[in-house]
């Protein structure tokens, strides 16, 4: 009978289909089964820096979406002790017990840590938590295969719609925040395929995806939308920050020396996630901005609100009349 809550929790977790909600559910489950744990922190490394993705504090879950540890953070003093170590074993560090996680499903799946604070957790309880973590990791590995593009490793189109819905729902008058959706297309990609072959085209797609991962932050979400199209969801920045990141990526691709090609360029269209109501509407706005970037000469970034400032809205469809 004592294990019934654990079995119920496993049943609930394995019914989830979003990696983000699975990670949150893992923290909540551990906190509910072992209420003597007053703090749980989900941590990972990015560019040599320890950052936090989520926390459970006194029973309340808080998503941090990749926040660096600040000086007041309870684990700040341990940041050098908790350096990246792929061979790390579960153990006590200060007043925390740490569990290494094989991967955290961020843009660049990476090793992570789950840190819990308690002085009243038995050895058996620690083993149960470790087993729960391994089961959940095995389950999330199956979700990764379903939600990621096989060639590039980026999130796929199915996961994109869910990601847009989450950001549209997250942006409320109470939470505020600015979120951006950008759609990107490799210029003249069909010509690359026709001239050099599809295997070479796949290498271009893979290289662009790698440049993409290097250009954006760990908390941004990257997707292969299909064919030569990519999408990024950015949060926590104003328009200058979003535009700067998009321009940096466009420039990175333009400067990269692809074998047998003089250059490869990208066209990018973006919009702010506001009150679109659906993923299809938001994607449609970014796609119209992308069309304008192509129409105006390619290899540039164009914003949907620039269209709104110069074109008219069709009252029957609610969309921009481009011509």
Automatic annotation (TrEMBL):
It is found in: Cell inner membrane. Its cofactor is Mg(2+). One of its GO terms (molecular function) is diguanylate cyclase activity. SMART domains: GGDEF. Its EC number is 2.7.7.65. It is an enzyme of class 2 (transferase). This is diguanylate cyclase. It comes from Atopomonas hussainii.
């Amino acid at each position: 009978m004592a294990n019934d809550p654990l079995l119920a929790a496993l049943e609930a977790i394995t019914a989830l289909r979003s990696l983000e909600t699975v990670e949150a559910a893992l923290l909540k489950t551990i906190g509910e089964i072992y209420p003597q744990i007053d703090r749980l922190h989900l941590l990972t490394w990015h560019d040599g820096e320890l950052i936090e993705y989520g926390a459970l504090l006194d029973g309340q879950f808080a998503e941090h979406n990749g926040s660096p540890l600040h000086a007041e953070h309870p684990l700040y003093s341990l940041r050098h002790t908790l350096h990246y170590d792929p061979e790390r074993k579960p153990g006590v560090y200060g007043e925390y017990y740490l569990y290494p996680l094989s991967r955290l499903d961020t843009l660049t799946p990476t090793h992570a840590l789950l840190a819990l604070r308690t002085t009243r957790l038995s050895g058996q309880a620690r083993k149960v938590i470790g087993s729960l973590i391994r089961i959940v990791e095995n389950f999330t590995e199956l979700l990764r295969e379903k939600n990621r593009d096989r060639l590039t490793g980026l999130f796929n189109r199915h996961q994109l719609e869910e990601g847009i819905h989450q950001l549209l729902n997250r942006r409320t008058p109470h939470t505020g925040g600015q979120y951006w959706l950008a759609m990107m297309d490799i210029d003249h990609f069909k010509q690359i395929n026709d001239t050099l072959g599809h295997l070479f085209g796949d290498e271009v797609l893979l290289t662009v995806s790698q440049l993409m991962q290097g250009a954006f932050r760990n908390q941004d979400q990257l997707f292969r939308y299909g064919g030569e199209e990519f999408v990024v969801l950015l949060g926590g920045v104003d328009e200058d920050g979003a535009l700067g990141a998009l321009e940096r990526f466009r420039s990175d691709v333009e400067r990269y020396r692809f074998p047998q090609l003089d250059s490869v360029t990208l066209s990018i269209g973006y919009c702010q996630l506001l009150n679109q109501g659906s993923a299809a509407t938001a994607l449609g706005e970014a796609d119209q901005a992308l069309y304008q970037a192509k129409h105006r000469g390619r290899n540039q970034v164009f914003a949907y609100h620039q269209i709104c400032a110069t074109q008219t809205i069709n009252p029957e469809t609610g969309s921009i009349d481009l011509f």
